[in-house]
Design a protein that fits this description.
- It is a single chain.
- The protein is of the alpha+beta class.
- The protein is 33% helix and 33% strand.
- It has a six-stranded mixed sheet.
- Strand 5 and strand 6 form a beta hairpin.
- The protein is globular, with a radius of gyration of 16 Å.
């Protein structure tokens, strides 16, 4: 059996990848499609909570800009669970996220998500290649859903975007 271990990610690279994720969420919270898409690679992709996908930084910016004009989108709060190297110039960030509707003080548990970011650095700095949001329903483990909601509520109370 060939046990291949993934390389370690330097602390500088981990900070850079975390920073990308934070910038994406800040762009969303400002309801600015260009700011949301800015950290993505030119050919980056986003797969939303509802399964809708957008490819390319320009298309992401345009579509999110349209969404922000037409909808009162909730703001994000999130907690990064792990950042790890996948290989040279590739990393994966895993996070949990909640959304706080306008006028509310707490995240809506029905909008909790697990988010995965694949980031790449081809020599010109780290960029988001893929952001995917998956509903965090925890159908068979309601205790996990309740704990996640409580954690995200605490982040929202402290005014944090990413904890």
């Amino acid at each position: 059996m060939n046990d291949t271990r993934l390389p370690e990610l330097s602390s500088e690279d981990e900070i850079a990848v975390r920073g990308l994720y934070h910038r994406v969420l800040e762009g969303w919270n400002r309801r600015d499609g260009s700011a949301f898409a800015g950290p993505f690679a030119t050919d980056g992709e986003v797969i939303g909570f509802d399964g809708t996908g957008h490819r390319g930084r320009s298309a992401i910016a345009a579509e999110l800009g349209r969404i922000f004009v037409d909808h009162a989108t909730p703001r994000y709060v999130a907690a990064v669970r792990r950042v790890r190297a996948l290989g040279a110039g590739a990393a994966q960030l895993e996070a949990v996220a909640g959304m706080v509707p306008d006028g509310a003080r707490e995240p809506d548990p029905g909008l909790n998500a697990v988010q995965t970011v694949i980031a790449v650095n081809a020599g010109a700095g780290w960029r988001v290649a893929l952001l995917q949001s998956t509903p965090a329903r925890f159908d068979l483990r309601p205790d996990l859903g309740a704990a996640l909601t409580e954690e995200l509520r605490g982040l929202a109370e402290r005014g944090l975007v990413v904890g």
